[in-house]
Specification:
Blueprint (H helix, E strand, L loop, with lengths): L1 H10 L10 E2 L9 E3 L5 E3 L7 E7 L4 H17 L4 E8 L3 H10 L6 E4 L3 H5 L7 E5 L5 E6 L7 H10 L2
Parallel strand pairs: 4-5, 5-6
Antiparallel strand pairs: 1-8, 2-3, 4-7, 7-8
């Protein structure tokens, strides 16, 4: 039932051009400590001093899949400027995630939220859900739904966080 609700909400999301980043008003940044597909643990605290995009996604989510190349473009353009992307998969089997990544090679970490605990802590009730973390470790913005993360407007906003 929960998966159906997420699918329905994702399908009803407005087109990417109609959406914008919303300032975060949801309180303190929740902890994030998850393993990637290679078993390496990633902690948000380890990324302090960088702007970080934390994206919650699933392979069955069409808007999630559609925006992933824009995260890769942003990562490639801004990695040297202290920008990182962390993609948190929502409770899918590793084999399914690996099959998906065979069709869409990405160079940013794919983290495993095996039981959805992290997504709940981050209030990620709709997919995709993306949080923009400032170098001080605090969430500054949240976006629900698909967005072109490599657009000049988004890029400029992220670069402002680094100043």
């Amino acid at each position: 039932m929960a998966k159906f609700t997420l699918i329905l909400l994702a399908a009803l999301a407005l087109p990417a051009q109609a959406l914008e980043l919303k300032p975060w008003t949801g309180g303190a940044t929740p902890p994030l400590e998850l393993s990637d597909l290679d078993g390496k643990t990633h902690r948000l605290a380890d990324y302090r001093g960088r702007a970080v995009l934390v994206n919650f996604w699933a392979t069955w989510c069409e808007p999630c899949r559609a925006e992933m190349p824009s995260f890769e473009r942003l990562r490639a353009e801004l990695e040297s400027q202290r920008v990182a992307v962390l993609a948190v998969n929502l409770a899918e089997p590793e084999a399914r995630i690996r099959r998906f990544l065979d069709t869409m090679p990405l160079r940013y970490p794919i983290l495993l939220d095996r039981d959805g605990t992290t997504a709940r802590a981050w209030q990620a009730r709709v997919l995709p859900a993306t949080y923009v973390i400032a170098p001080d470790g605090k969430i500054r913005y949240r976006h629900l739904g698909e967005l072109d993360w490599s657009s000049p407007e988004v890029r400029e906003l992220i670069l402002k966080l680094l100043k």
